[in-house]
Amino acid sequence: MKNALFAAAFAMVSLTAASAFAQDMKMTPWKDMPAGVYSVDKYHASLTWKVMHAGLSNYTARFKSFDADITFDPADITKSKVSAKIDPASLETDFVPTAEKDFNKNLITQEQWFNAGKFPEIMFNSTKIEVTGDNTGKIHGDLTLLGVTKPVVLDATFNGAYAVQPFSQKAAMGFSATTSISRSDFGMSTYVPMIGDKVDIIIEAEFAKKD
User: Of 5, 34, 109, 176, which shows the fewest CB atoms inside 10 Å?
Assistant: First the structure.
């Protein structure tokens, strides 16, 4: 009997806690979010890209180190700004380095690829934000890669936000975004067309408001 009473009491406490937590997890409309600068939460963000390999598969790799900020204006989201810096030396593929060949290092350092010794940053700065739906938009901006700057457009989806995120206790918001570039536009034409010219970029990121 004691065990049954204990189990019932534990279940009631658990349900109460779960209910309170569910209330804490209630999303906040973007227009009700506080204005200010939001920085990328690196533990909940990814930056991957893929390119067609010999017509057989979309080979996928990632950058492990990057920073990004959103200067957020809920009164007029089109006045918000987005900036990002990527460390090309953080590139990672699924090739396992061997004594004979370090594929990641070659891509990072060689002149015909990312040439990170000469160009240690890849940069993006928004120039215009266009609202296309209740939770979608286009982020127009300039991408600088290998010392070449070209306009690109990110197709962005606003996933949700919390005025107070239950875990961090900070205002937080999340986005998904995609875009495509032609790498030859930036001077990286090695092995085109055997390795595709078009590069698809996929971004998943959460942002937390700076104190």
Answer: 5
Q: Encode pLDDT of 78-109 as tens digits.
A: 999 999 999 999 999 998 877 678 999 999 99
If phi > 0 it is left, if psi is from -120 to 50 it is alpha, else beta; for residue 36 that is left
Task: Characterize the bridge pairing of strands 172-182 and 195-209.
Answer: antiparallel
Under 8 Å between Cβ of 153 and 140: yes
User: Coil, strand, or helix at residue 148?
Assistant: strand
If you average pLDDT over residues 5-19, what whole number do you get? 44
Closest CA to 180 of 152, 145, 151: 152
DSSP symbol at 52: E
∠ CA 111-114-118, rounded to 5°: 65
pLDDT at 11 over 50: no
Alpha-carbon gap, residue 92 to 190, rounded angstroms: 19
CA 14 – CA 149 distance, rounded (Å): 55
H or E stretch covering 107: helix 103-109
Q: CB burial class (10 A; 0-12, 13-18, 19+) of residue 7?
A: exposed
SS3 state of residue 76: coil
**β-pair type (91-92, 172-182):** unpaired
